[in-house]
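I am writing to request your help with a piece of structural work I have in hand. I am sending you one protein, given as its amino acid sequence and as whole-number tokens for its backbone shapes. Kindly check, if you would, that the fold set down in the tokens agrees with what the sequence suggests. You will find the record immediately after this paragraph:
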Amino acid sequence: MALEIGDTAPNFEIPDTDLKMRSLEEFKGKKTVLSFIVAASSPVCEVELCTFRDSWQEIADLGAQVVAISNDGPFANKAFAEKHNFKFPLLADYNSKTIKDYDILMKDLLHIKDYNAAKRSVFVIMEDGKIGYKWISEDPLKEPNYEEIKNFLK
């Protein structure tokens, strides 16, 4: 069932790059820019997360934080995060449970049977845990509108 603006965002408990279990609950109290990426170290995901990294202070000044999720394992995510010096958590939804909970599973990526990933998506979770903004792309090569996200945060 598709999530809509105003719905309570599904909680999750998935590991970060240091194998610490993280949940949406711990990010409550601030707006959270929840970015689902297709694959760590892929070219478009690199651009997207580096854009969030470079906008991190501006996003923080707007009272928000960035949390990224991929269905890669924590070790691939760690290498990706360290290479690009991300200042925000990159979480590993390696069994795609959270991706399914947000109804953004992309099946058979690049026509490879059973190679599932997240649709490139951004949800802004409000301080109360409800979805305030959502953007989902069927095209894994399309980036989100970063200015629109920042404008929403204002």
User: Anything to note?
Assistant: The mean pLDDT is 91. The longest strand covers residues 64-70.
